[in-house]
Amino acid sequence: MQGFVAFWRNGMISFAAVFVSTVTLFIIGSVIISDAFMNATLLELENKVDVNIYMVTSAAEPDILALQKRLEKLPEVAKVEYVNREQALARFVEKHKNNGLILQSLEEIGDNPLGAVLNVKARHPSDYAGIVGYVEKQKQVLVASGEHSIVDEINYTDNQQVIDRLGKLIDGLRKLGLFVSAILIAMAVLVTFNTIRLAIYNARQEISVMRLVGASNAYIRGPFIIEGLMYGFFAALLSVIALYPATIWVTKTTSTFFGGLNLVKYYLSNFGNIFGILLLSGIILGMFSSYSAVRRYLKV
Question: Is the pLDDT of residue 224 over 90?
């Protein structure tokens, strides 16, 4: 009871402690949401990268489908899309519909010059080299046996640099995100800890008097720990309120140039988990800071 009374009685001090704690929890919440956004963004970038295996125009469809099934069994492969000759031609025409010269050239040819295509998506950008190596090995086995390979070309060489850079970018961003997040959280926790210590510093004379009259350490700590708990509770409440308009602003800003994860929907659908994490973090931070600060004046 004394802790609740002291919290409301020391209005300005409590406000300062709650404000700093709110900033700390806001940073923690931002890290959680930004991590989800970064993962969704990187996943979308990964999905845009693939390897195209072009078939010779004389390749029989059963042979192509057999190769597709063998590729799908590879643990590195996430998905294999089969595009037959007619679909490949339709996509080519749609892509170059504004280029009259190319369309005229197709009409003069009179026949479909394109072969079927297998679009392969790997589970990770680093897996593409192994997939291409497997296809090249299949080609070599056929050539060695005196047969013609149904594979005409693999565009991995053209995309290899992009794939390698994407893999390095993904790993680098994840490491950088963890490093920056750890620094920000550590700084915020340190500021919060010192703010709560200053708040208790004002009550050092009261603690000394209680010690002189024989109050036990647990009795003295109790009200301050309750105050720390209230700092954490109100800070968590304010931080989740502040995070909502922040997610709206970020969503509107990023949607103009990249359509990644809708942070507002993510925040609302995971509100309970986010609030629970912030509430638990705030209570632990507030109570631990109060306990440590009081311990100094108790000299135990």
Answer: no
Tokens of 47: 């999905």
Cβ neighbours of 124 (radius 10 Å)? 12
pTM above 0.70, yes or no: no
With beta carbons less than 8 A apart as the criterion, state whether 96 and 107 touch: no
Cβ 51 vs Cβ 160: under 8 Å: no
Contact indicator for 6, 240 with CB cutoff of 8 Å: no
Instruction: Specify the DSSP element, H or E, that contains 51.
Output: strand 51-55
pLDDT digits (tens, 9 = 90+) for 118-171: 999 888 877 888 888 888 887 776 655 556 788 888 887 556 666 567 667 767
232 near 267, Cβ under 8 Å? Answer: no
Domains detected in the chain: 2-45+166-298 (no CATH), 57-149 (3.30.70)
d(CA 253, CA 275): 24
| SS3 at position 76 | coil
Given a contact cutoff of 8 angstroms between Cβ atoms, the answer to whether 152 and 88 are in contact is no
Provide the token pair at 2: 């004394």
Helix or strand run (H / E) with residue 214: none
